[in-house]
């Protein structure tokens, strides 16, 4: 397998999942501005959508979209899935909320916008994170062990730290537990991220 990623992008969630599973895979960094890969390739030839993640499977099939990649990994590996009859559905429900609400709400912070727009976005994300914290089932989103949904949320919490968004104590604890996991540290090390003061 081969993962195309950009440091601190949502593809970090997929990177963490692969590290957690101990799978053998290649990694290639993508410059989303130039649409070139680290080896000089045309990223648009790999994913015409122009963004990460992209996971190329061993049989040559290509997966895009963060939720799709995470769901595919969890479907074959129960150790990073949510258990129970509705486990997969609950994981998809949470990841969809993270993607369509929290992830999207960060847009004014990543792109040119007014101070008022940035302040409004920070307040929106803070409220969304409070909602998530209020529905946690344990030290992680669904209990005592992290799932693919936690990996995605963890990236959002790194973004929150970067942009000075208020984070509930329960999620600060979850973020810090995630940072101590060897797989998380391995993925962040490869991506050139600093654990205490995350930068690109």
From TrEMBL:
What's in the keyword line of the UniProt record?
Membrane, Transferase, Transmembrane, Transmembrane helix
Q: Looking at the record's lineage, which domain of life comes first?
A: Bacteria
Question: Residue span of the signal peptide, if any?
Answer: none
Looking up Pfam families in the UniProt record yields: GST_C_2, GST_N_2
Q: Where is the GST N-terminal domain?
A: 1-81
User: In what residue span(s) does the GST C-terminal domain sit?
Assistant: 84-200
Q: What is this protein called?
A: Glutathione S-transferase domain-containing protein
What stretches pass through the bilayer?
Answer: 151-172
InterPro entries with a match to the protein in the record: Glutathione-S-Trfase_C-like, Glutathione-S-Trfase_C_sf, Glutathione_S-Trfase, Glutathione_S-Trfase_N, Thioredoxin-like_sf
Identify the PROSITE patterns for this entry: GST_CTER (PS50405), GST_NTER (PS50404)
User: Transmembrane helix: present as a keyword of the record?
Assistant: yes
One molecular function GO term is:
transferase activity
């Amino acid at each position: 397998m081969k993962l195309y990623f950009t440091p601190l992008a949502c593809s970090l969630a997929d990177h963490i999942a692969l590290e957690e599973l101990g799978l053998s895979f290649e990694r290639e960094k993508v410059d989303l501005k130039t649409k070139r890969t680290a080896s000089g390739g045309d990223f648009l030839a790999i994913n015409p959508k122009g963004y990460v993640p992209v996971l190329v499977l061993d049989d040559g099939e290509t997966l895009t979209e963060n939720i799709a990649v995470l769901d595919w990994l969890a479907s074959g590996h129960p150790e990073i899935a949510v258990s129970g009859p509705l486990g997969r559905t609950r994981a998809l429900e949470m990841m969809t909320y993270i993607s369509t609400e929290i992830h999207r709400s960060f847009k004014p912070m990543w792109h040119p916008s007014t101070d008022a727009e940035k302040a409004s976005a920070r307040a929106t994300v803070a409220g969304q994170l409070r909602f998530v914290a209020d529905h946690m089932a344990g030290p992680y989103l669904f209990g005592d062990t992290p799932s693919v949904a936690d990996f995605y949320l963890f990236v959002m919490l790194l973004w929150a730290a970067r942009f000075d968004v208020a984070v509930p104590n329960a999620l600060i604890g979850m973020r810090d537990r995630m940072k101590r996991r060897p797989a998380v540290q391995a993925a962040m090390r490869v991506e050139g991220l600093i654990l205490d003061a995350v930068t690109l």
